[in-house]
Amino acid sequence: MLKVTNLYKSFGEQTVLNDISFELASGEIMCLRGKSGAGKTTLIRCICNLDKADSGTISINDIESLENGKPNKAYQNTVGMVSQGLDLFPNLNVMDNITLAPVSRKLMTKEEAEKNAQALLDSLEIGDKAKSYPSRLSGGEKQRVAVARACILSPSVLFFDEPTSALDIKATREVANLIEDIASRGISVVIITHDESFCDMLGARQIVIESGKIAN
Amino acid sequence: MEIIRLMPRFLEGLQLTIGLWAIVLVLSIPLAFPVAFIRSSKNKLVAGATKFYIDIMRGTPLLLQMCFIFFGLPEIGIVFERFTTAVVAFVINYTAYFAEIFRSGLKSIDKGQWEAGQMLGISKPVLFFKVILPQTIRTVIPAVTNEVTTLVKDTSLVYILGLGDLLRQGKIYANSLSSLAPFVVVGVLYFIVITVISKGCEKIEKSFNY
Ligand SMILES: Nc1ncnc2c1ncn2[C@@H]1O[C@H](COP(=O)(O)OP(=O)(O)OP(=O)(O)O)[C@@H](O)[C@H]1O
Ligand SMILES: [Mg+2]
User: Fold this and answer.
1) CATH says B2-207 is which class?
2) Given ligand 1 and candidates A11, A43, A44, A160, which is best to mutate, with the most ligand atoms within 8 Å of its CB?
3) How far from chain centre, in Å, is Cα B176?
4) Of A21, A106, A110, B170, which residue has the fewest beta carbons closer than 10 angstroms?
């Protein structure tokens, strides 16, 4: 379970997050909405330890995000992110993008990692793209690679920043299926989106951020 | 036909030119990476000192730097042999240029790449060598190619040290034969060398086929 308590974050004079608290059960899907500049990305960056909140606490399954003010490794292993830019490694093929982390962290042998990666790719219906470089993939395919790269580490919570902004209706529906599939494995999913119909498609809980607070 | 008889002399000069070129590259390219890092350091003092070094190297003629090392340093008891002088001067100078190229190359890598690595728990060294460095190398190849070919031509500055590089051989025999032919030979040799090097760099660039 993800637990965010009294989170504050300012950039200079501008208060972006002003006392944010919420909880998310395992396997739950939540949509995070709000106007452009409302602080949605900032919120999930803070939860992922990419930005540092000014105050407040964050924990997943009772493991705190920080340890002596520094990112807690045990916590870090429980969060995954599919960022808006996806940030695939362009110099590595799909397989290496997915296996670099588990192999270099010695979580799996190369053979295990490749087997798991191939299974993930197959379930995402891009099993034939393992040897392709990211630049050769379509937007939707890239996104699925980013999902596979995050999922192979079995995070407890997976964050998506605007996963459908570049997709047509058919591809959006595919992403919705994908997210439901992820959630059915017990992974909690937080999705930043502007797209209300996408939230409805998922039947997900929605929270709206406005002036740094949760408005609903 | 004189020219053909003199070919071994030109090749000797060419050997010195290419030897110096290779030694300078082998030393300055690896050195430039740490310099680029220090130059981007958060510590203002070391970053500033490194910037000062780079600015001096880029803001004064290489010929002057070489004179300084060869004629100036002995005044304070530091004496280098001629060829060593050339190597030291070129390495110090080219390291500065390469460091600036690498620094801007590193800066051009999207910070999302570092963040993705952090999110995936990949250690900084692994991320650097597997992800950041290969991308940096690819982006800097055109600029590096430029420096690498300029270096071939710059080596002719060692005439000031009395070293017999390719151009100096050409000058000597142009004088003694009262002919322009040695210069033509020298020009052709430079051209061949630089063309081969450029083609090599192009090959390397193409090998990054992602
Ligand atoms: N690193 C930063 N430095 C200064 N200001 C920042 C920084 N990051 C974000 N901000 C500011 O914080 C506010 C919230 O930004 P954020 O990216 O979280 O918005 P968002 O809700 O994700 O918007 P969008 O829907 O456009 O992506 C914005 O006003 C932005 O300018
Ligand atoms: Mg955003």
Assistant:
1) mainly alpha
2) A11
3) 32
4) A106
Q: Looking at this predicted complex, what is its ipTM?
A: 0.90
Domains of chain A: 1-78+157-216 (3.40.50.300), 90-154 (no CATH)
Q: Output the CA A37–ligand 1 centroid distance in Å.
A: 5
Task: Tell the residue number behind the tokens 């396997």, with chain if given.
Answer: A27
Q: Is the pTM of this model over 0.90?
A: no
> What are the residue ranges of helices labelled H in chain A?
40-47, 73-76, 94-104, 110-123, 139-151, 169-184, 196-202
- Judge if the beta carbon of residue A104 lies within 6 A of ligand 1: no
Residues B36-52: tens digit of each pLDDT: 999 999 999 999 999 99
Q: State if residue A37 touches ligand 1 by the CB under 6 angstroms criterion.
A: yes
Nearest by CB to residue A80, choosing from B119, B122, B138, is B119
Whether A101 sits inside 8 A of B210 (CB atoms) is: no
A107-135 as b/e: b if 16+ CB within 10 A: ebeeeebbebbbebbeebebeebbebbbe
Q: What is the per-residue pLDDT across B147-168, written as a single tens digit (0 to 9) for each?
A: 999 999 999 999 989 898 999 9
- Ligand 1 close to Cβ of residue A135 (< 6 A): no
| Backbone angles phi and psi of A188, in degrees to 5 | -75, 145
Q: Rounded to the nearest 5 degrees, what angle is found at the Cα of A118, between the Cα atoms of A99 and A184? A: 95
Instruction: Please report residues of B whose CB lies closer than 8 A to that of A85.
Output: 110, 112
Q: Are B115 and A50 in contact (CB under 8 A)?
A: yes
- In B76-158, alpha helices (H): 82-107, 111-119, 124-127, 133-154
